[in-house]
């Protein structure tokens, strides 16, 4: 697993069982920092997740609409119930985003690859949210639905049991 | 899989042999087929037009066309990636194609690499002549001295390159020291680990960034398929490496490293280089390679055990002048071999016949053998023999031969899995029949 977290933080913030439970139970994702530009990484992730059946709500004050969904300037302005807050912003901005995620009653705070903020994690954890850090939602989804394997990547899944789709 | 079992498996780091048999293959949900199916298909029906478009934009991971990926090939790729402790892999039609794919992904005209001179002759030719046509210059150095590598680095150097066990003299690459040197210059170390296989040495564990193999050799192991593979540790920072980091005009300005992170190099190698060069592996060959990988540890154990015994036998034989095997205590690479290949420094080595005319004696020797197959390959389950100066390395000039550590009378052996006593008998009778 490629990560900048130490062993203790990996166990806490990258647990595969927790990741799978979150991906199974999540329906609506607020994506903070989702770019309207088609070639940006956040746009790749949102396109993928939308196709896989998740509703992706953009949170970006610079955008009006992304992938057919109205964009909001911050999490507090989003009228819909949010299961996961997925963050594509600098780690310095994460504690405030975590605070807003708590206030809107999100169940999960998910910081993307190389977005690491232990302070944001603490805020979210204290309010009972699941926290995932330094992981990509698209990669993790692809790991467990088999598509990451199709492009030759090492999913680290070892099993002799017959496969099934998780979500 | 129920949740409990899954949690138990995810806390466990499975062993090498377990991953040889299981990595990269989950029995498919529809048929339950236990062996890896051969997906002998060129193309894949799209689920719908949206998904098709997203696949072409690389916004979805999935199957498009077997020139780019294939489910059987993917099992081979993930399995070897698991065994090498890599983040992923791209399989290619041959080992030469694996090198070409790596270099065409990393380099641009005007770039240089510094490479060990102890390489397969075909690699020297590719690097020297074909790369010159692409505007890429390769500086060759004696791999033994780190200072020589450092001295050959220029502002245009983009990578260091060497073979874990050099062909044909069996020199052992000081991977850890070279990785430090490469990283100090913000460039990747690329290691061809064909002769070692991940069972004997995993270059990524010693700091190498990219690993290439001719899978034709021990990985397949039975001399039936030509194949190669490119692997990435996922640890190298390509953010300042223009070929991986800059917007790609062929994908609407996609930045591979920013978008795919530690998969960036491999995604570009697959979606751009493999797509455009067309050197894809056949799914049937991928299936044969998977069969080979399933017994890799068992075969390599016996390969190195036989090789060590044959090398010792030859080193004491009255008709043998010298033996170059790093498993022998007096070999100059013995200490490096103990560090990097503690299970044994492979099963390919060279020796010279004691003769007044070594070239003629070499010919007599090869023609007298009964069990060793005379051919241009290594890493078969069967024992193989060749005279490099007249075959694999014949494109090289005398100077290149000397730089590559090849002399005119050198015989190269690839020790197979036959009964050891039979191999010793065959070598003995062939040596005693030489008169030159």
Q: Care to describe what's here?
A:
The complex is a heterodimer of chains A (167) and B (436). Helix content of chain A is 36%, strand content 15%. In chain A, strand 3 and strand 4 (69-70) form a beta hairpin. Chain A has one domain (7-150): 3-Layer(aba) Sandwich (Rossmann fold), CATH 3.40.50.720. Chain A is built from 7 helices and 7 strands. Helix content of chain B is 40%, strand content 14%. Chain B has helices spanning 3-10, 16-22, 49-56, 71-83, 95-106, 121-133, 146-152, 175-184, 197-200, 242-245, 256-260, 264-277, 283-293, 296-315, 334-340, 358-368, 398-403, 420-432; strands at 88-92, 112-116, 137-141, 157-163, 189-192, 210-214, 228-232, 247-248, 254-255, 320-324, 348-353, 373-374, 384-386, 410-414. The longest helix of chain B has 20 residues, at 296-315. Chain B has 18 helices and 14 strands. Chain B folds into 2 domains: 16-293, Aspartate Aminotransferase, domain 2, CATH 3.40.640.10; 297-432, Aspartate Aminotransferase, domain 1 (Alpha-Beta Complex), CATH 3.90.1150. Chain B is of the alpha/beta class and 436 residues long. The chains are: A alpha/beta (167), B alpha/beta (436). The interface between A and B is large, with 37 and 59 residues.
């Amino acid at each position: 697993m490629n990560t900048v977290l130490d062993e203790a933080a990996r166990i806490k913030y990258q647990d595969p069982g927790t990741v799978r439970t979150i991906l199974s139970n999540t329906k609506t994702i607020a994506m903070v920092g989702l770019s309207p530009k088609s070639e940006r990484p956040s746009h790749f992730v949102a396109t993928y997740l939308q196709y896989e059946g998740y509703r992706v709500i953009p949170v970006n004050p610079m955008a009006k609409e992304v992938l057919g969904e109205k964009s909001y300037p911050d999490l507090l302005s989003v009228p819909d119930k949010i299961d996961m807050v997925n963050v594509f912003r600098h780690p310095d901005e994460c504690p405030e985003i975590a605070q807003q995620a708590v206030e809107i009653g999100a169940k999960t705070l998910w910081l993307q690859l190389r977005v690491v903020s232990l302070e944001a994690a603490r805020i979210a954890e204290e309010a009972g949210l699941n926290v995932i850090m330094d992981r990509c939602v698209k990669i993790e989804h692809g790991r467990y639905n088999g598509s990451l394997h199709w492009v030759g990547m090492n999913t680290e899944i070892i099993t002799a049991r017959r496969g099934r789709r998780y979500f | 899989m129920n949740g409990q079992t899954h949690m138990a498996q995810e806390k466990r780091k499975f062993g090498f042999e377990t991953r040889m048999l299981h990595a990269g293959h989950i029995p498919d949900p529809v048929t339950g087929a236990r062996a890896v199916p051969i997906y002998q298909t060129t193309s894949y029906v799209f689920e719908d037009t949206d998904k098709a478009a997203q696949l072409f934009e690389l916004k979805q991971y999935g199957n498009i066309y077997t020139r780019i990926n294939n489910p059987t090939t993917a099992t081979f790729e993930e399995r070897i990636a698991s065994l090498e402790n890599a983040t992923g892999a791209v399989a290619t039609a041959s080992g030469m194609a694996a090198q070409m794919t790596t270099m065409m992904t990393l380099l641009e005209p005007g770039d240089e690499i510094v490479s060990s001179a102890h390489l397969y002759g075909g690699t020297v030719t590719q690097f020297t002549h074909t790369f010159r046509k692409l505007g890429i210059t390769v500086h060759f150095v004696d791999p033994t001295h780190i200072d020589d590598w450092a001295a050959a680095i220029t502002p245009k150097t983009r990578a260091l390159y060497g073979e874990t066990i050099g062909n044909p003299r069996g020199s052992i690459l000081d991977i850890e020291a070279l990785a430090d040197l490469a990283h100090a210059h913000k460039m990747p170390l690329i290691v061809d680990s064909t002769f070692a296989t991940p069972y004997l040495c995993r270059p990524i564990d010693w700091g190498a960034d990219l690993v290439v193999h001719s899978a034709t050799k021990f990985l397949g192991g039975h001399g039936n398929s030509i194949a190669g593979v490119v692997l990435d540790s996922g640890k190298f920072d390509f953010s300042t490496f223009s070929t991986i980091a800059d917007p790609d005009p062929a994908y609407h300005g996609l930045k591979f490293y920013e978008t795919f992170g530690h998969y960036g190099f491999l995604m570009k190698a697959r979606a751009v280089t493999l797509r455009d060069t067309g050197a894809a592996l056949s799914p049937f060959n991928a299936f044969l390679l998977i069969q080979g990988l399933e017994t890799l540890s068992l075969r390599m154990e016996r390969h190195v055990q036989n090789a060590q015994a044959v090398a010792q036998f030859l080193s004491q034989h009255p008709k043998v002048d010298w033996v170059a095997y790093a498993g022998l205590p007096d070999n100059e690479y013995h200490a490096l071999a103990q560090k990097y290949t503690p299970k044994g420094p492979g099963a390919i080595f060279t020796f010279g016949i004691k003769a007044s005319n070594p070239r003629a004696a070499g010919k007599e020797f090869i023609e007298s053998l009964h069990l060793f197959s005379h051919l241009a390959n290594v890493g078969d389950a069967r024992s193989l023999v060749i005279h490099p100066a007249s075959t694999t390395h014949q494109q090289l000039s005398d100077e290149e031969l000397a730089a590559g550590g090849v002399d005119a009378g050198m015989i190269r052996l690839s020790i197979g899995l036959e009964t050891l006593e039979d191999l010793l008998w065959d070598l003995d009778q062939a040596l005693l029949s030489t008169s030159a």
